[in-house]
Amino acid sequence: MTEILSLPLPCALLLIDLQKAIDAPYWGPRNNPQAEENIAALLAAWRNAGWPIIHVRHDSTDDHSAYRAGTDTAQFKPQAMPLPGETITPKQAHSAFVGTDLHQRLRQRGIAALCVGGVITDNSVEATVRHGADLGWAIALIEDACFTVDRRLRDGTIVPAAQMHARSLALLEGEYAKIVATAQALQWIGSL
């Protein structure tokens, strides 16, 4: 039987870069096709509990990026659309803690832990989780509420998204974060 999640409270839901840009064709194949559905379920649970939600938005300055600030593709995906009053943290670096006031705002609000989902697992999600853990945050990374894309290695070999995702989770598990499924997070929030 899967162990129930346990984190100190209050726990914020931190959603990273869930913007239409991730659907741009140049990203290629991805894993976890149910991620957006899981994110919507997590958002509903956090909202129902009245727990804090932080939406991180990548505002790229690259003219060729689908994440370019101000474009239609830089808008949040429908399943991850912030509601009025929910915090939006714009960023331009990989980690949501670089060049933002995220750490200070979370501390000022008395947040004790973070549940993280979003994109890309082996990029901004991994960078944020590593950085957050180094800042002292208790973190749960929700493995089926994030995803990545196929990656081409320097020798031309293609590594499928599912393998890249599993690699990131393996590197983060234990030292940086608890790795849990959406069902575990929902069971936890429902038990409190």
Task: Provide a compact summary of the structure.
This protein is α/β, with parallel strands linked by helices and 192 residues long. It is 30% helix and 21% strand. It has helices spanning 35-49, 102-108, 121-134, 161-172, 182-191; strands at residues 11-16, 53-58, 87-91, 113-119, 138-147, 151-152, 158-159, 178-180.
Structure explained in plain terms:
The structure is a single chain. This protein is of the alpha/beta class and 192 residues long. The chain is built from 5 helices and 8 strands, in the order βαββαβαβββαβα. The protein has one domain: Rossmann fold. 30% of the residues lie in helices and 21% in strands. Helix 1 packs parallel to helix 5 (182-191) and helix 3 runs parallel beside helix 4 (161-172). It starts with 10 loop residues before the first strand and ends with a helix. It has a 6-stranded parallel β-sheet with strand order 3-2-1-4-5-8, sandwiched between helices. Strands 6-7 form a two-stranded antiparallel ribbon. The protein is globular, with a radius of gyration of 16 Å.
Descriptive keywords:
192 residues, alpha/beta, Rossmann fold, two-stranded antiparallel ribbon, 8 strands
Topology:
Elements: E1 11-16, H1 35-49, E2 53-58, E3 87-91, H2 102-108, E4 113-119, H3 121-134, E5 138-147, E6 151-152, E7 158-159, H4 161-172, E8 178-180, H5 182-191
Parallel strand pairs: 1-2, 1-4, 2-3, 4-5, 5-8
Antiparallel strand pairs: 6-7
Helix pairs in contact: 1-5, 3-4
